[in-house]
Amino acid sequence: MKIRLDKLLAHSGYGTRKEVKELIRKGYVTINGDEIYNDDLKVDTENDEITIAEEQVNYVNLRYFLLNKPKGYISATFDDKYPTVLDLLPGSVIRGLFPVGRLDIDTTGLLLITNDGKLAHQLLSPKHHVKKTYWLKYTGELVKDTEKRFLEGININNEYITLPAQIEILGNNEAYVTIEEGKYHQVKRMISACGGEVTELKRIKFGNIELKNDLKEGEYIEITRKDIF
Ligand code: URA
User: Fold this and answer.
1) Span from the CA of 159 to the centroid of ligand 1 (angstroms)
2) Which residues form the catalytic set?
3) Is the distance from the beta carbon of residue 107 to the nearest atom of ligand 1 less than 6 Å?
4) Burial (Cβ within 10 Å: 0-12, 13-18, ≥19) of residue 150
């Protein structure tokens, strides 16, 4: 792949576009052994050897895929027993990719798959309060003060009190739930603590990203870093 040198260096973590242009201008960068001063030069990421301050630059082409996960797939890169979400992407792109967080095997919906470890860490860290919204169907009857209990945080099996969350009960035994964390079976256990049992769970929003109706289960689209935040 051919890419502008300043873009490549900025994507590889050597600074902003402005900062890397300055490094190039000052002669810190070499291509195939030659010092270069021209930041709009295109380089070949597979064949050109690029150094910055005598250190070799290993370019990683960061990629971002949004998958509508179907049931029956594990949110992992490898599994002995079940197919993984990576099996739904073309073999030619999956090297180095991993899902950002987990959806249960029977949960469907929005899953981000990337090779951008830094972004994944930001999205998953509790510090960043990234909101995830789920649509769900349940059986049983939810206690009267369910909305209030969600807002206050729910005690899950005396193990953990969840951060404040929201539930919008839609009638017809359906609801939207929004949480900011991702504990094991969290939504199912919150609903269970309020008297219901989740029978269908689908993630429809992850941070700023929404699941579009035209993305069918098992389908994916490639997005860019800017689409995420
Ligand atoms: N909460 C759950 O219980 N399961 C999921 O897959 C995601 C959130």
Assistant:
1) 17
2) 104
3) yes
4) buried
Q: Is the dihedral of CA 123, 129, 135, 140 positive or negative?
A: positive
How is domain 2-56 classified at the CATH fold level?
Answer: 3.10.290
φ, ψ dihedrals at 128, nearest 5°: -90, -5
Whether ligand 1 lies within 6 angstroms of the CB of 187 is answered as yes
Best residue among 103, 191, 205 to mutate for probing ligand 1's pocket (most ligand atoms within 8 Å of CB) is 103
Domain boundaries 131-206, CATH class = alpha beta
In angstroms, rounded to a whole number, what is the distance separating the alpha carbons of residues 66 and 75?
Answer: 13
CATH 3.30.70.1560 domain residues, the chain: 131-206
What is the predicted pLDDT for the residue at 120? 95
* Ligand 1 and 104: CB distance under 6 A: yes
Q: Is 188 in the pocket of ligand 1 (CB under 6 A)?
A: yes
Q: What is the CATH code for 64-126+212-227?
A: 3.30.70.580
C-alpha closest to that of 35 among 17, 54, 21, 19: 54
CA distance 114 to 206: 14
Q: Where in the chain is the domain with CATH 3.10.290.10?
A: 2-56
Delimiting residues of CATH 3.30.70.580 domain(s) in the chain? 64-126+212-227
List pLDDT tens digits, range 128-157: 999 999 999 999 999 999 999 999 999 998
Q: How far is the CA of 208 from the centre of ligand 1 (A)?
A: 19
- CA 187 to ligand 1 center in whole angstroms: 5
146-204 pLDDT, tens per residue? 999 999 999 998 889 999 999 999 999 999 999 999 999 999 999 999 999 999 999 99
